[in-house]
Amino acid sequence: RGAGAPGAAAAPTTHPAKPPRSEPGTQPWHPWGSHPRGTTGTLWAVLMEQGALGPCSARCQSTCGLTPRAGRAPGQGAAPQVTVTDSPERAAKPGSRGARVPGAAAGLCLPFSCSCPVFPGAVTPVKDQAVCGSCWSFATTGAMEGALFLKTGVLTPLSQQVLIDCSWGFGNFACDGGEEWRAYEWIKKHGGIASTESYGSYKGQVRAAVTAITGYVNVTSGNVTAVKTALYKHGPVAVSIDASHKSFSFYSNGVYYEPNAVPSPANTTGALDHAVLAVGYGVLQGETYWLVKNSWSTYWGNDGYILMAMRDNNCGVATEATYPVLA
After folding, report:
1. 149 in Cβ contact with 52 (< 8 Å)
2. Cβ(52)–Cβ(115) below 8 Å
3. Peptide bond between residue 6 and the one before it cis (omega within 30 degrees of 0)
4. How confident is the model over 184-199, as pLDDT tens digits?
5. So what family is this one in (predicted)?
6. pLDDT tens profile 93-117
7. Among all residues, which ones are annotated catalytic?
8. What Cα–Cα distance (Å) separates residue 31 from each residue in 63, 125, 251, 257, 277?
């Protein structure tokens, strides 16, 4: 997967030597909830006006009596402690050693609606992959950044460039596409991943790692509850989607549903051409959705985000979700 921003040239069929590229750029960032009520042209204002986004402290509370926990952003209830067992439904990808998360967690009470990110402080500013087909590196680092925040309470931007430069030996092809699980394997092998600040622009060599991982988890394929559980307990989740339609390229607002997307359960790995980051979920005018962070700058979509419909597993959001397990 390596879908670049609209207008990007098609990736060549051969894989040239690593190009010396700078760290993908970042567009101006608007903090979660920073837009005042009534401001037009922003995702948050639209959600507030339509009643789908109240204060996170209200929207992200479940009916299980969860209360905010110290050290976590306001509105994030203490993660429920439940015992779950593995599920045979999700077969690991060829060559993958990812663990699996079950599709059903008995006794787990999830928030009914969480239109803000499940963990607001765990999400870095929207970035821009430009014409480089490196979406896989942005999804990987996004999940890593969230996991690291939940562990340390500090949000540290991690380097996509180090993955683009150095994970060729694990089957990734820099700007010509790659896979999140291959990036996780590289991170595990090399003892972690560098921060954006420490790695900087193109280096072509490994720098001191910020955090290490013991592995990663493949969420039960096609199971909405499993993906919600992963988001609620572990933070942002890397997901793969069908982004091949013009409607996706020109999305601006509302809950996105593409009737011509490859239907579930046919949303197989081969049909998914773009990696993004799921950061939350909610309900807007009766339509359930995933809150998804893209890597096409804040000029795309709604400040760089999109609400993707849950029904029918449209565009395959729940087909191939992963998150890292920190050491």
Report:
1. no
2. yes
3. no
4. 999 999 999 999 998 8
5. Belongs to the peptidase C1 family.
6. 333 334 433 333 333 445 444 445 6
7. 135, 274, 294
8. 27, 8, 21, 26, 17
